[in-house]
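User: Predict the complex.
Assistant: Input components as received:
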Amino acid sequence: MRYKDYYQVMGVPRGASQDEIKRAYRKLARKYHPDVSKEKDAEDKFKELQEAHEVLKDPEKRAAYDQLGENWKQGQDFRPPPDWGQGFEFSRGHGGEEPGGFSDFFSQLFGQRSPFGGIHGRGRAGGGFAAAGQDHVARVEIDLEDAYRGGARTIELRTPEMTADGHVTVKPRALRVSIPAGVTEGQQIRLAGQGSPGIGGGPAGDLYLEVTIRPHRLFKVEGRDVSLTLPVAPWEAALGETVAVPTLGGTVDMRLPAGARAGQTLRLRGRGLPGRPPGDQLVLLKVELPPDSPRARQLFEQMKREVPFDPRAGLGK
Amino acid sequence: MNSIDRILEGQMLDETVWLDIGQFCAHLRVERHWIVELVDAGVIEPHGPAPEAWSFPASALVRARATARLVNDLGVNLAGVALILDLLEERRRLEHRLEELERLLVR
């Protein structure tokens, strides 16, 4: 088990006041909260922060943690002292569940079966008590092609589990899940009975998968609509030619309107993600000049002489 | 335990699925008054005139869950959550627009 330096995690000195700890938590929580953060690994960092705050905000836990001494380093190999927790008075009896996914370090020192836990002295699931298991929410990232076609996909999850000796560990588990065709960013899929097991015969909780779609090389997604930037030659745009356009369902031919302009968006109805109604594919035109060559220059020179055109006429003198 | 060979079928919770207030509460395992507070604060918008007649698109569950997390983790009140969620939605829309413009400019 690795030592966790909760003061380092929260960026406060060991002598910080409870108010300073609260302020540091609020500040870092705003930075790393998975619902608002754009930081990489925000979810893991926020979990680490919550764990540190869980200990440092509680004077009893903090005092016990401080007694471990200040010479431990973050990540150092650690075993709890045999007399851990002795000599402290504990507030007990709330019986609340500890948040899932905390480290083994936290679980051993402050988890439910530790001297600080809430379930000592009473049997779990005893006395005819029954309760539904907790619901879980997991974010899953799928490819846009999977969202378009649907089909079975294997999803790797890290699930907090209570071990026989009362510690919470995070176990990997894999599920084969049928992804419905047309699933969109942010949508939820409910898997009944795949959450935590129930207590005392209560029903298991549910697992809610929140779908995110991996960025695609060609397409951007907005709801069920997908968009694509399509490079076209100046003469294709000017003359209104038929061009091949990649879509999620395969390449289709699209006729450009004569005189099409760069930045113009054309709509391929029903070519987005399936649904009722299906989304569209938006095609954004980008006019590309041909590579420089003597012949190209010659033709541009000819256009310069023969086609009156001032692209900056609207800018004024 | 699940076998990896077994394919789990899930229930899609999108805007085509509508839930009454009882079903909405059951999904979130919360009391009805909390949902009324979310509606009063403008976090989620039901169809229908009164709680008995309210219906919610299942997609509102995502917003309701995010609200619970933001209230618990950041200590924000419901009016603040409504503002945060609206601004996040606006940020997402602007990022999308920015990406489109960048694709036009950089090639």
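Chain A touches chain B through 46 residues (CB under 8 Å).
Let me know if you want any component modeled separately.
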